[in-house]
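Lab notebook page, bench 4
Experiment: in silico fold of construct C2
Operator: M.H.
Input chain length: 117 residues
Purpose: comparison with the prior construct
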Amino acid sequence: MNFTDISPFINRLDLIKDTADQIIKDFDMFGMEIKFSGNAYNAYEELFDQIEPHIDKLIGSNQKKFMGILYRIDLSDVQIKKAVNENLSEPFTSIITDLIIKRELQKVVIRNHYKTK
């Protein structure tokens, strides 16, 4: 199973809800509230719209907390640099937010895969 390609899992409602729960948990550890309505059909946009302002604020005011979140979510410098180089026209906060959501989904997929084995 290739866990780097998460596209087959993007439409699985159970995984989307688990991903939202994981995001909520991780951001809560840093005192940032993220809410999820439960509507899986616009989950990406809903989560993105809440995460990006937190990331933008942290980049400008609290680098230590920003790095802590990236560490907690397990986003490496290599992943970030690659994404930035592939999306030069996108704002940095948008790239990071997208990576966060996709990495959290990837962690949920991996966890569920090994839980069922």
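Observations: Residues 52 and 97 are 6 Å apart (CA to CA). The chain has one domain: 9-111.
Next step: discuss at group meeting.
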